[in-house]
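Prompt: Have a read of the protein record below and flag anything odd:
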Amino acid sequence: MKRVVITGMGAITPIGNTVEEFWNGIKENKIGFGPISTFDTTDYKVKLAAEVKGFVAKEHLDFKSAKRMERFSQLAVTAAGEALSQAGIDMEKEDPYRVGVAVGAGVGSLSLMEREVIKIHEKGPNRVAPLFIPMFISNMAAGNISIYYGLKGKCIDVVTACATGTHNIGEAYRTIQCGDADVMVAGGTESCISPTGVAGFTALTALTTSDDPKRASIPFDKDRSGFVMGEGAGIVVLESLEHAQARGAHIIAEVAGYGATSDAYHITSPAEDGMGAAMAMMEAMNEAGVKPEEVSYINAHGTSTHHNDLFETRAIKAAFGDAAYHVPVSSTKSMIGHLLGAAGAVELIVCAKSIEEGYIHPTVGLQEPGEECDLNYVPGEGIHTDVNVAISNSLGFGGHNATLLVKKYEA
């Protein structure tokens, strides 16, 4: 099996529209929560979201292409451009059929769906936009990346709700491992801070109704009350080690393990004993040949919902045993909210940056841990320390569990 490395990263998030801006925000404990600006929330219980600010598609993409994309695709194509640029991929020197895409969106464009349904009711079915369907469906993030950059290899969109980004990177990793591609552009994207999206998640009681940005997304805290909906995109360029070495690429980190399981339990709640998520972590560690005590950092799914944080804590204890009490665990969602299909990809970028810079960010806003939440969730300030091995967890509605393990690259 081929070794797989990360050579490029791109991110658009509520606290920064490039990886550098995002990571600087992470190091500053910046939070990206504020009043929803995309629609009138007068009749809504939920008032806050984590919106991407200052992103103008035409500043990054040609006008015609941008016009044919919904926001989730625009974010993905732009983040992919950053990742490809950092990786130094020159498609004129690559076999395009050996460069693929695995980028997913958990939902697609709810905003477009809303606009077109209203149009049907007000003006009739003959007024629906001709490109409604190809702009709405979730695979168009991957499709647009492929078209925009001329990537002709495998092009897939794995959709597993909040585990989407992690599963896409995992499947891209497998694709390179078995020799089906030399390079994969992988990750997740999402933009559904819309009336339907917010109303739907509110009806599930998944979103916090707090109107205090500092106490809205507080994973593992006893007062946690739900997640803050976010938007954004995270994209990584994965390559076989031999391909990266042959072109003299800078290697950021190595992807060394991937675990994927299903709870087979409930459509929204993780399994109470956490064993599905625990098995995903154990699979990733076993593949990488890493023992629990060798893991430097866990980037938790950490949504700030009661069930997730409690059951994920149980999962970490089941997978790590006594080592669970010694490994730092923190949640990026404490700063950027829940990016749904993009969450796992952005959080893997955090793991790679933690390895690269030797820094573990805190769980911002955590004041008093909740019942059974007794691990080291890095309250207060971050930790400056060597990070050799990091794992990222994602749990999605439907019982989807995914874990990626990345480590410091050694020749």
User: Anything to note?
Assistant: The chain has a mean pLDDT of 97. The CA atoms of residues 16 and 22 lie 4 Å apart.
